[in-house]
Amino acid sequence: MTPPTKTQNSPTSAVPRREDEGLLRILVVPGEGAGSATLLQNLRQWAEDGRLRLETAPDLPRAVRQLAASTWDVVLAVLGDRPDEDLSWWVDTLRAAAGGPRLIAAAQAPSMGLVLRAEQSGVLDVLSLPVRRDELMQALGRLRAVASEAAIPLPVVEPEVVGPYALVGQSPAMLDVYKQLARVAGSAATVLVQGESGTGKEVVARAIHMHGPKAAGGFVAVNCAAIPENLLESELFGHEKGAFTGAVTRKIGRFEQAASGTLFLDEIADMSLALQAKILRAVQEREIERVGGTGTIPVDVRLIAATNRDLKEAIKQGRFREDLYYRLAVITIRLPKLADRGDDLLLLTAYFVQVYAERYRKTIHAVSDRALDLLRGHAWVGNVRELRNVIERAVIVASDDTLRAEYLPDELRGEAAALADRPQGAPLTLAEMEARHIARVLAQTGGQIGAAAEILGIHRNTLTRKMKEYGL
Prior knowledge:
This protein has helices at 36-49, 60-69, 83-95, 112-120, 133-148, 172-185, 201-210, 229-237, 254-257, 273-285, 311-316, 322-328, 344-359, 369-377, 383-397, 410-420, 430-444, 449-456, 460-470; strands at 24-29, 52-56, 74-78, 102-107, 125-128, 151-153, 160-162, 165-167, 191-194, 219-223, 262-266, 287-288, 297-298, 302-307, 331-334, 366-368, 402-403. By secondary structure, it is an alpha/beta fold. Helix 10 (273-285) crosses helix 12 and helix 18 (449-456) packs across helix 19 (460-470). The longest helix is centred in the first third of the chain and has 16 residues, at 133-148.
């Protein structure tokens, strides 16, 4: 499409009347298609209930004059036979228009490519012809929500880099963690890190390793819950050739791989009692025996274990060895839930925005007040890991420089509605919010526990346990 030529006559600049305040001013460019008259008729019927003020530009030259003469909230333009060219022209034209009007483009059977280009260009929405009232009102509702949100500048965060991860936080709860970390890092003592899934247990373990006497050695991490029980012993201790069917070569286990370094055993409570006994011997004697082997092998490793379970309760239930617990818990560091970290939520949000804005080539400087309220009101079942997933998703779908409520997942926005429907405004308990959030994600994934656990940022074993706890 080529820009229309200017004509000599220009309409008088429209001045909003008092009764127009609160209305969305929409310039409609219906094109010359057969459905243009129907579109205009429908829009006029919807205008009163939708608090819209409509004006029509019958052709492109008239549209340019009306854009120059007044300010508009939205331009609803029907794309012609060359929708890609038309879209590009409208995007360029509206960038130069006063007041920064947003574009809603309507087209016959919009292609995926057209929608992608519209999204990348900051178009408010792409609608199919004939335009449906609910789709139009939904798009305009998003625009009204954006107009009601105030932008809060994101702080610049300089994280403590820990290998591929980072420690972020200044809350009293995290300050206690830093103090414990500083006290234990200089020794080679065995450490037990306790905390819910997603609180950063491996990050803390890596920080202890990096600031400890074995920092020159390797850091080897094993998620005990992610490896089948029948393979975990071989994974940890290695095996000799011919030790069992399929053992065609010797395998060096994780204890040996971590020689002169640190071995991190995550979710240690998920291993069997028999394997716990072998771990106890390795910790006590500083030696291991490969599966199928006949001799012992000395190992010089620092052991850091982690769990999201209450080990003392597991001991009472006969699921964890008491002697192993006391060997592991020479020093215990307990990590706080994200819900207990106060303003760290804003710092972590700012940090993850920095990370993912750079990765996805976005420019985001602020978070809206409504988005921040939704983030603060969420249960955060998956703690920091879940927040990271939510912010990555929000950055990907963001179309301007502010992280807005509309970019957050439906589950978070739905929770706000649930709170509003609460009798006399009574707030939900943390457990109620957590249960509702898990139920929504399970519904979203069709009951698939693995997919739900990934969205929540927790291990599937943790999700299964919480489902039993809440009767889901």
